[in-house]
Design goal:
The protein is of the alpha+beta class. It is about 45% helix and about 15% strand. A two-stranded parallel ribbon has the order 1-2. A two-stranded antiparallel ribbon has the order 3-4. The radius of gyration is 21 Å and the shape is elongated. The chain starts with 18 loop residues before the first helix and ends with a helix.
Length: about 130
């Protein structure tokens, strides 16, 4: 627990099953996986987890996720629609689209770094 009473905890989980498993019903039955369990992408599973947590009343202000979820725009969009902050990893080749154009993350970081260097050169110390 942090000093302000907030903390973090594992609150839900979902087993990812590849298509090779979900398409082999006999294999699933042998592993006690219910027949109604079909294939779902990792992003779909993550969105389901977020929805379940919120439906259960979990006070979630933000979410973190690795690159597998960070590059799933459906996942990011759901969090934005639900007004939940997030920090997610994305591959450097990830593209950002806006009304002004399309950029790769690594290009944006390079440009931002150049601007910061330029600003620091112009700064004076007292």
């Amino acid at each position: 627990m942090s000093p302000n009473g907030s903390g973090r905890a594992l609150v839900d989980r979902e087993l990812y099953l590849p298509k090779a498993w979900t398409s082999d019903r006999e294999r699933c039955r042998a592993a006690k996986i219910p027949d109604e369990r079909g294939f779902a992408t990792k992003g779909e599973l993550a969105r389901d987890i977020v929805r379940r947590c919120l439906t259960a009343g979990l006070p979630a202000a933000w979410v973190t996720a690795d690159e597998a979820y960070g590059q799933d725009w459906h996942f990011r969009r759901l969090l934005e629609q639900l007004d939940i902050g997030y920090v997610v990893a994305v591959p450097k080749s990830q593209q950002i689209k806006s009304l002004a154009g399309i950029w790769r993350i690594d290009q944006l970081i390079e440009e931002a770094t150049a601007v910061l260097r330029q600003r620091s050169k112009g700064a004076t110390s007292l």
